[in-house]
Amino acid sequence: MNKKKAIRILEEQKQKILSSEHPNNDEWTFETASYIKDFFGFDSTEYAWISQFKWHVKYIDHPIFGNEDEADRALREKPKKAIIFLDNCIRTLNNKGLFKKSKRNFLSDKTNFELISIVFGFCVFVFWIGYWTKTVELFSLKNKAENSISFVSDTTSQKITNPKEKSTESSKYKPK
Question: Looking at the record, which segments are called Disordered (predicted)?
Fold first, then answer.
């Protein structure tokens, strides 16, 4: 839903209050509260206000607590208060825009302790991988060094032959 559509819906709700054909009842309140919750969020002050809004007034006919005239005046002010509220909501939408639920990822549900443990565990794992690869590399270098030393000792221990002797030996086995 976009901001223009939200404003149009609030204007329609305001027209319902002003219309003599539409009774001011709890159905209007439920519908408006549903819209307000979508537009501003469940924890907003706008939703808190509309969820407490009632079209009726309770009174006690008593000199200390009030009388019927005050109850009638309060009932006449209810539509005015609702219209002022809707106008304020429209202004807020124009200024702030619609409420967007925060996007959650797999880390947003973790506590600080869990996050620190994950980071620490990752660091230990990376250190272990580095240590292991270093050990493998050193082992490989050690084997290469041992092989090269044994190769050098093998070549020096062999008798060096005269190249002419090699050629004569190879000529003995020539096919005819």
Answer: 155-176
